[in-house]
Amino acid sequence: MPSVPRPVFKMLLEEARNVLLALALVAAVTIVMLALVRWSSLRHDSVVYVMPVIVAAIRWGIVAGIASAIGGVAASAFFFFPPLFDFHVSNPDQALDLVLFIFV
Questions:
Q1: Which residues of 46-72 are buried (b: 16+ CB within 10 A; e: fewer)?
Q2: CB 23 within 8 A of CB 68
Q3: Which of 29, 31, 33, 55 is the most exposed place for a label (fewest CB within 10 A)?
Q4: What residues have CB less than 8 Å from 69, skipping those under 6 apart?
C-alpha cells in the first residue's frame, strides 16, 4: 500500500514547532551564560552556543539547527559583546568569531 503524503500545513507546523524548540534551547543557554558571567569569573565564549545547535540539528533537523545557529549568534552579539544590548559588534575579532560560528 503506497504511503499518503502528509499535508503541507502539518509539515510546516511541525517544522515551526522544531524551530521554536531550538530557539528555546538558545534562550536557556543564554540565561545560564548570563548568570555564569555575572556571578563568577568566567568569561563568555560563543562556542557554548554550539551545544544547542548540535542538539537541534540532531533531534529536529537542519532547519532547526540553522535557526539555532542564527539565534546563538544574535544572542551572543546582543548580550555579551560590547556595546551590550545592541547587535553592533565593535571589535573586528569578535565579528569574525560570530561569522565563523554561523559558518561552522
A1: bebbeebbebbbeebeeebbbbbbebb
A2: yes
A3: 31
A4: 49, 53, 101, 102
Q: What are the pLDDT digits (tens) for 9-47? A: 888 899 999 999 999 999 999 999 998 888 887 777 778
Q: What percent of the chain has pLDDT over 90?
A: 38
Cell of 93: 575579532
C-alpha cell at 3: 504511503
pTM: 0.80
Residue whose C-alpha cell reads 562556542 in the numeric block:
47
Take residue 43 and report the three cell numbers written for it. 568569561
HEC-encoded secondary structure of 23-79: HHHHHHHHHHHHHHHHHCCCCCCHHHHHHHHHHHHHHHCHHHHHHHHHHHHHHHHHH
